[in-house]
Each structure stands twice: as structure tokens, then as C-alpha cells.
């Protein structure tokens, strides 16, 4: 048997009702009950409540009970945001790709305008490739 927390009156009473008290715990509970009429009332109330609960008829859960509970739990997780990370990942990837595409287009446009505007010089050591002349008809 697990030894309950003997300093706490509620834990003592609960362990007593669950028949988990050892001899030391029982003596502490009896001493507490002898000293406190409030503790006696509380224990009496707990005993009567326990009798009422035990007297209730046992009910069978509906066949789809597990599925309904699991569905509600999943719905609450979605609403709470546990799955938002999984949903947002594709959008984050698309955003990064769009930003990269815009950056590449921007750099290409500015590079072309810099070459045409004379801001960049061509390497003089590179020879121009001659285009083959079209054959004469």
C-alpha cells in the first residue's frame, strides 16, 4: 500500500475512504477526528457521498462514444492552434520562394540596366563570339 501524505487532513480522509491507510495513518486520523468536530462532519459527509455514488446504477456508454470524444479533442486542438504550424508550413515555403523570385528578377533587371548604362565594364580580355553569317541565297 502506498503511504499517503499524513500531514494533509483531506489526504488522510481520502486514503481512509479508499482503505489505503496503514496503522500509523489510522491513528493520526482518529486523533484528528477526536480533536475536531468539523473533521468528523467532513468525514461523515464524504462517507455519505461515497455511499450515494456507489448506489448509482452503472451506465453503458453509447457505441460511438469514443469517436465523438476523440473528434471533440481534435477539434479543440485545431481551435487552440496545435496544428497551425503544420498548416502554415506550406505557406511559409511559398512565401520564401516568392521572395527569392522577386529578388532574382530585381537583381537581373538592375544588372542589365547597369551594363546598358555603362556602369559596369565588360572584361576586355573576353573575345566576342562571332555570329555565323546567314548563308546567301
Work out the helix count: 5
Helix content: 55-70%
Overall mean pLDDT = 81
First-to-last CA distance: 108 Å
The biggest beta sheet, please?
none
Query: In percent terms, what proportion of residues is strand?
Result: under 5%
Q: Report the structural category.
A: mainly alpha
Q: Using only CA atoms, what is the Rg?
A: 40 Å
Query: What is the total tally of β strands?
Result: 0
What does the overall shape look like? rod-shaped
> Strand-and-helix sequence, N→C?
HHHHH
Low-confidence stretches: 1-6
Provide structural commentary.
- By secondary structure, the protein is mainly alpha-helical.
- Helices cover 66% and strands 0% of the residues.
- It has helices at residues 9-17, 23-35, 37-55, 65-80, 84-116.
- Helix 2 packs across helix 3 (37-55).
- The radius of gyration is 40 Å and the shape is rod-shaped.
Topology:
Blueprint: H1 9-17, H2 23-35, H3 37-55, H4 65-80, H5 84-116
List keywords for this structure.
single chain, 137 residues, mainly alpha, 5 helices, rod-shaped
Short summary of the structure?
The chain is mainly α and 137 residues long. Helix content is 66%, strand content 0%.
